[in-house]
Amino acid sequence: MPRSSEVDSHRALGMLQAGLPISEVSFRMNVNRTTIFRLRQCLYETDTASDRRRCGRPKCTTQKQDRNLFRNHMNNRCLSASASSRQTSGRNDQRISANTVRRRLSTSGRGARRPYIGPTLTQRHRHQRTLWAQKHAAWDRIQWRSVVFSDESRLCIDHADGRVRVWRRSGERYQADCVREHGRWDGVSLMVLGWYLLQ
Questions:
Q1: Contacts with 19 (C-beta within 8 Å, 6 or more apart), sequence order
Q2: Do 74 and 80 touch, CB atoms closer than 8 A?
Q3: Mapping DSSP to helix (H, G, I), strand (E, B) and coil, where does residue 19 land?
Q4: Angstrom distance (rounded) from CA 114 to CA 196
Q5: Which segments within the chain are labelled E, that is strand?
Q6: Angle at CA 101, nearest 5°, toward 96 and 106?
Q7: Whether the predicted pLDDT of 185 surpasses 60
Q8: What pLDDT digit, counting tens, does each position of 121-143 carry?
Q9: Out of 2.170.150.40, 1.10.10.1100, 1.10.10.60, 3.40.50.80, which CATH number does the structure's domain 6-46 have?
């Protein structure tokens, strides 16, 4: 059963102090009678409604080791969880698993995602794109009819592109160290071009 929040615990205790029976409080809070009974017992024994400290297996890494783990993945965005687990030791020089690395990075808001493949945008590029978007923000459908929207896709023939992941937070897709740069004409490839004209 999930723990009651601190607000709900204080609300239930307020009802008990107002003289309501346990059955009535449990009905109003939509919880089991035993939950309210144990909450009252906890208040009598410890003078607080906070949860007691519970036993459990301690984390295999310290906070300092977790910070080092985050720093390593910020310095090398393409570092895999398996490689990171081999480089990082936990408490008492204990080996940690790749799943532990993934969990630590996930709790910090980082996830393994496919990198944006293309040229790195400089500050000048970003400024010019912002100006272009602001200039055309008020265009209507008739004005857009004179514009052809095109896109191209390159299919590699002589080698595989590979499967690379970068560890990043949400909103960091186009950040310089999250972009995988590539040569435009390296290797044998097939270019497919398509376009669309607004009707």
A1: none
A2: no
A3: coil
A4: 27
A5: 111-113, 116-117, 148-156, 166-168, 179-180, 189-197
A6: 150
A7: no
A8: 788 998 999 999 999 999 998 88
A9: 1.10.10.60
